Each structure stands twice: as structure tokens, then as C-alpha cells.
Amino acid sequence: MILFQGPEGRLKSVIRKFFKNVLNKYHFKLIEKRVHSPLGAIYEYRNDVLRLRLVSDKSIVNVDVSSIHYEDFWDVGTIYLLMFLRSKGVQLDKYDVHAHNKSLVNEQEAIILESNMKAIEELYNENNYKKTIKDLNIIGTRRAEVIFGLKRPEDKDS
Asked: What superkingdom heads the lineage (predicted)?
């Protein structure tokens, strides 16, 4: 028998199942907990470099990452995409959004965090976070252009 889990129960279950090892291995501490039953729940964790925000909303759990030096959070998939595009030398404002516009499930997010945490911490350390934020904004803008059918001024003639 499956019992209904509220947003906090769902969040705790996902953390136990997928993120417990990452949180422990990389010394994340719970710094904020907000529960808005029946609407949602947010747990925010922090280590020396990063903040992780896990949000349970309508039975979906989203995982976002931020530098401790900057307020904006980005989803794990976008951060992973940035790492991939940089490794391939792809110009960020020209990449094929359709080829890289897939949502991740929590298990995939946990695997990405676990296997790339040192690289993610490097992206967000005090020396690199400004460039990382700039590049993430380029990717986010490119996605919005494609998803919402927006054209950049230089694309209008094509």
C-alpha cells in the first residue's frame, strides 16, 4: 500500500534515496528548511563552496546549485551542460538547444553531482564563479530564445 506523502515527506524520501551520500561526502549542512504544506517544501544545504537547494513542488523534486558568493541558483542539468559544452569547445551562444534540452530525473542529478562535485566546486569557487554565472546566463538566454521563439537582433536577417 502506498501512502500519500506531503511535499516534505516526498523531499525527505528523495534525499534519502538519491542525495544522502553526496550531502555527507561533500560536507553539506542543512542551513534552511521551509515547509509550505500542502504546497511545497525547500531544504537548502551548504558546504564551503556551494549551496544546494532541493525543492519539492507538486510531487516533483528539483535540485539547484549556487555559489556561496552569489544568490542565483541553476539546475544541475544546465550546469552539467555548461561543463559538457566547455569540454567540447562549443561557442555557448550557438549550441544546438534542441540536442541538449532534456530534463533530468533525481537519480541522474545525484549521479552527476557525485561524479562531478569537484569540477562543480571549481566552477563556483571564489575565482571562477563570475565567469560561470556569465556562461550560465548565456545558456539560459539561448534556451529562452529557442523555447519562446525569440530572435536575437543578429538573427533577424536569416
From this structure: Bacteria
| The dihedral sign for the CA sequence 123, 81, 146, 64 | negative
Give which of 93, 107, 108 is closest to 139, Cα–Cα.
93
Contact status, residue 14 vs residue 41, Cβ threshold 8 Å: no
Helix 129-147 and helix 76-88: axis angle, to 10°?
100
Q: Is the pLDDT of residue 156 over 80?
A: no
Closest-CA residue to 97 (of 46, 138, 57, 125):
138
Task: Note the pLDDT tens digit of each residue in 64-92.
Answer: 999 999 999 999 999 999 999 999 999 88
**Residue pair 109/63 in contact by the 8 Å Cβ criterion:** yes
The strand order across the sheet containing 60-67 reads 29-36, 40-46, 50-57, 60-67, 74-75
| β-sheet bridge partners, residue 60 | 57
